[in-house]
Amino acid sequence: MQISSLWKKLLQTFDKKPDGSASLRELINKGAYFLLMVVAIPLLLSTDNSIQYTDVKIGSVATKKVVAPFNFFILKTKEELKKERDEAVARVPAYFSYKPEPEKKGLEKLKQVLAYVRSDNLEKQFSDSSGTILTRHNRIFRDSLGISVTTQYYSQFSRFLQGKRLETFATNWWKKRFKKGVVDLREKDIDRDEVILIRDDIEHRLRRDQLVNLDSAIVDFVTALEKRYQDPPREAWRVVLAQTLKPNFYFDPKKTESERQKAINSVSLTKDMVYENERIVDANERIDEDIYQKLYSLEVARVERSKKEGNWQPIIAKLGRFMLAAAILFVVGLYLFSFRKKIFYDNKKLLLVTLIIILNIVIAAVISGPLNWPVYVIPTTIGSMLTAILIDSGIGFVVTVAIALLLGGIQGGGYDITMLTIVSGMISIFAVYEIRNRNQIFKAVLYIALSYLWIIGALTFLRFDSLNSMARIFTYNLLPNAVFAPLVTYMILEVFERGFDITTDVRLLELSDLNHPLLKELSIKAPGTFHHSMVVGNLAEAAAEEIGENSLLARVGAYYHDIGKMEKPEYFVENQMDAKNRHSELKPNMSALILVSHVKTGLELAEQYKLPGRIRDFIAEHHGTTLMNFFYNKAVALAGDKDNVNESDFRYPGPKPQSKATAIVMMADTVEAATRTLQNPTPSRIRAFVEGLVDAKYRDGQFDECDITFKEVKQSIDAFMPILYGVFQHRIEYPGAGGKAVKSGGKEKNRDKNGNGSKAANGNRPA
């Protein structure tokens, strides 16, 4: 119990916000994200090559003179080493090891076969040419010696051996052949010109065409029989001998591979030497392949010399990478703290930024490390596009610059990868920051490819490189990169959306489909609410566009804000049509509970259908903590005194709108419902009425917790007007029964959408 209480106190201490900005736990999380990147990124991009000498490119011009500080060997290039090692491996013969047991067993079995077939017991069988007797003896032959032949071959073999004693001839011939060696592979299965047969630790080198395998040895044996005897059954002998004898030399893969490895290790890693004080390159001299290899060899020699002498240079070089990473990431954090405080204090968003940067670095590390592909293949635009779509374009730019500096500095990619990352990253952000359809992915592919072509062209012209080299780099490296990056971004986008509960425009477009199960169910169970939500969506979209907010978010949020009314649609006036108002038979408190319940039910449905958090905000905040005036006043009238009625029982649970988008939907929801109560609506009456409704919301403090301004409220009202004029346009009067004029729209009910009286329910001034 004491440990549990101490732990709770410790957590409370961590969560305490002494200065009102960030708790100790939040600061620890931020520090953990920073340290994770500072440690992980240099380790992922670690390289043994310092940029002191090898920061130049082949074809560039040296800016300073370099003289050898000590004697060192010139290393061969990877291509030279591979070529020489391949040649050394090709000279290694295939090794075969001697195994005496198969030879001994085979010769012994051959004697048994010859003796069995030639025995006196079998001579009598040929006095009767019956096939049944031959078949029976063939079966005995197979069961006794394990050799399976057809009856025809058995008959030919047996007739040939009658009266002949071939045991001595056959065994002597095969002993001589086995002494020379019979291998288990055919000539075409051996990929070396020479082979070595190892018998009793003595190696015998032969050409590949000198080898004899069992098949060719059998052919030679039958040929020898033909010279000695007339018409030996060749096929019968071949079948019998193939099942009797075995090779005595077998391919030895371990020995062969061991010799190949020795051949590889015997190839020298160096090809020449540079002596102390020898000039390697002069200032303003063009660097060719030989000079670059000397500079690379000098750098490797310096590292090896430092390790042998036990100095701190390698450790200092690694420390420099960590310091460089810390500086780059500190600038990113400083930008967020200074200009994007909401994101800086949102640890979830910081974790998202951290993961996106590390993801891009991991991809770069795999491509430049194990795969050993050119740096041009690294899809740096993935981080740019993910950040722009999931957070915003400003953070996307900062992340792009950070990735460019990390790859260009720590990894040693140089100026090329830095420029390509920054330019293509900004172009990709422009292409996808407001992604609304799949076509933008293909637009991003085109824009990124063009930016790559422009930059690689500029670098080529700057360095006087060949156009063929530029075309090769663009075709084989940059163009696949431009196609690959946007497609991968689109595929993994949903992982981040779901994992961090982020609502992108792509997700909003999916939710705006009126065939979504929730909207379809709403249109069936509560058609009046569904129509009301569509109109509110149009109002909210127009207002959001006017003030520069995300209009798609406002429209989709409006579609779902009243989904909770599906549970009891008949208690909401827009679904009652001309039916009797259900609230007239209920106590005010019960009516208030029913109205409030649609918010709770809506949130439960949103959770069930996995709606994003930003959409759930519209459900919870579109009423804020508004007072249900009609039922409150009714309760006061029944109680006889305000003191006998708890006002909080007649307020929605809130919270109040926390964003401009939810505030817009609150205004749109209120004016759409209440303006339907107007009789003989005219543009001036509608505007005055709407301004009164919005003013009542403001005076009730419903906009206190969001950053919407008076100017934006006025702009929103201006945006509402054209839509409201269209919905409540002047109705034409038609002559009715008895000559009385009747309006085409019928008699309006003086209730808002929640079953309240318009003035009482909204608390506004008379229009």
Describe this structure in words.
The protein is mainly α and 767 residues long. It has 3 domains: 22-48 and 315-502, Arp2/3 complex 21 kDa subunit ARPC3 (Orthogonal Bundle), CATH 1.10.1760; 94-258, no CATH class; 515-762, no CATH class.
Essential attributes:
disordered C terminus, four-stranded mixed sheet, mainly alpha, elongated, 3 domains, 62% helix, 767 residues, Arp2/3 complex 21 kDa subunit ARPC3, 31 helices
Give the fraction of residues assigned to helices: 55-70%
Overall tally of domains: 3
Helical segment count? 31
Specify the overall morphology: elongated
| Amount of beta strand | 5-15%
Distance between the termini: 65 Å
Class inferred from helices and paired strands: mainly alpha
Total number of β-strand segments? Answer: 10
From the alpha-carbon coordinates, what is the Rg to the nearest angstrom?
A: 45 Å
In short:
This protein is mostly helical and 767 residues long.
Topology:
Layout: H1 2-15, H2 24-44, E1 66-67, E2 72-75, H3 78-90, E3 94-98, H4 100-118, H5 120-123, H6 131-145, H7 151-161, H8 167-180, E4 194-199, E5 202-207, H9 214-228, H10 234-242, E6 249-251, H11 253-266, E7 270-274, E8 279-281, H12 289-309, H13 313-339, H14 341-344, H15 347-368, H16 381-390, H17 393-410, H18 414-432, H19 439-463, H20 467-500, H21 505-511, H22 517-525, H23 527-547, H24 551-560, H25 588-608, H26 613-621, H27 629-639, H28 660-674, H29 683-699, H30 710-727, E9 733-735, E10 741-743, H31 758-762
